[in-house]
């Protein structure tokens, strides 16, 4: 009897903070793949609210009940990480047409670096189409409520982090 190859997808991002839109994509990807690796990027040009360990912990907490989702922090080249995970697919979220050009270029570059890779674009559910981590951070820093954009545990972590920075 032949054994079928495990279908593994990597969903990379900074996840600073992880939003309900991110959660929506992970839930849907977990339905499509045997394993989903949420790859939290450590080395980034972005100035983050949470450090890598905090972002990994927040995501691990959110996906603890999923048997086929694991959360891993990484730094370096994404394609090397994808190969290390034995993944065949990278999941990218598209919120608006403005995301497409950048994501399309990235998918082409990634395929050039790792020809066996496929990129799967998923769009978030309609209610999360406009939600981005950077907008959530901005709203929170200006004192606005973010409960409709992030889970309760993430909201609590944001409030705590912002109080610490005062």
UniProtKB/TrEMBL annotation:
One of its GO terms (biological process) is coenzyme A biosynthetic process. The record marks 22 as: Transition state stabilizer. It is an enzyme of class 2 (transferase). Its EC number is 2.7.7.3. Its cofactor is Mg(2+). Substrate binds at residues 14, 46, 78, 92. Keywords: ATP-binding, Coenzyme A biosynthesis, Cytoplasm, Magnesium, Nucleotide-binding, Nucleotidyltransferase, Transferase. SUPFAM superfamilies: Nucleotidylyl transferase. ATP binds at residues 14-15, 22, 93-95, 103, 128-134. Transmembrane segments: none annotated. GO terms for cellular component: cytoplasm. It holds the Pfam family CTP_transf_like. GO terms for molecular function: ATP binding; pantetheine-phosphate adenylyltransferase activity. The keyword Glycosyltransferase does not apply. It catalyses: (R)-4'-phosphopantetheine + ATP + H(+) = 3'-dephospho-CoA + diphosphate. The keyword Ribosomal protein does not apply. HAMAP family: PPAT_bact (MF_00151). Reversibly transfers an adenylyl group from ATP to 4'-phosphopantetheine, yielding dephospho-CoA (dPCoA) and pyrophosphate. Homohexamer. Belongs to the bacterial CoaD family. NCBIfam families: coaD_prev_kdtB, cyt_tran_rel. This is Phosphopantetheine adenylyltransferase. The gene is coaD.
